[in-house]
């Protein structure tokens, strides 16, 4: 019965947001020029952090990254298992794994604002920084 209920619940597998839909979401939410970065920068970040999957997570030893922006439980959200969590976005990490990414967007913007850029995200630092990223928004 529990297996059936888990399969029947929408969003349990997470949603993979199509590329151009993600571009539209970022543009609509004011990411173009935010902290001096382009929507293409954010698209590259999302591609390498979560592959556009709202349910993505990654274990980092004592902490974990959650959701489409891979927001870390040590500093930004509370997962109930990371000791000393700061929870600076005042959100449960599980809320970062549902299909509604409005709260994810607010937290990601807070992180970028405090860092004055995208350096907290290793996906962006390792794969996107200083590169031509126009392909991430091309045709959208």
Automatic annotation (TrEMBL):
Keyword annotations of the record: Antimicrobial, Bacteriolytic enzyme, Disulfide bond, Glycosidase, Hydrolase, Secreted
Record's catalysed reaction(s): Hydrolysis of (1->4)-beta-linkages between N-acetylmuramic acid and N-acetyl-D-glucosamine residues in a peptidoglycan and between N-acetyl-D-glucosamine residues in chitodextrins
Family to which this protein belongs: Belongs to the glycosyl hydrolase 22 family.
EC number: 3.2.1.17
Swiss-Prot/TrEMBL GO biological process terms: cell wall macromolecule catabolic process; defense response to bacterium; killing of cells of another organism
Subcellular location: Secreted
Record bears the keyword Ion transport: no
Glycosyl hydrolases family 22 (GH22) domain sequence ranges: 89-107
Higher taxonomy: Eukaryota, Metazoa, Chordata, Craniata, Vertebrata
SUPFAM superfamilies membership: Lysozyme-like
GO MF terms, alphabetically ordered: lysozyme activity
Main localization of the protein described in the UniProt heading: secreted
Name of protein: lysozyme
Gene Ontology cellular component terms for the protein in this record: extracellular region
Annotated Pfam families: Lys (PF00062)
InterPro entries linked to this entry: Glyco_hydro_22 (IPR001916), Glyco_hydro_22_CS (IPR019799), Glyco_hydro_22_lys (IPR000974), Lysozyme-like_dom_sf (IPR023346)
Domain of life assignment: Eukaryota
Gene that produces this protein: Lyz
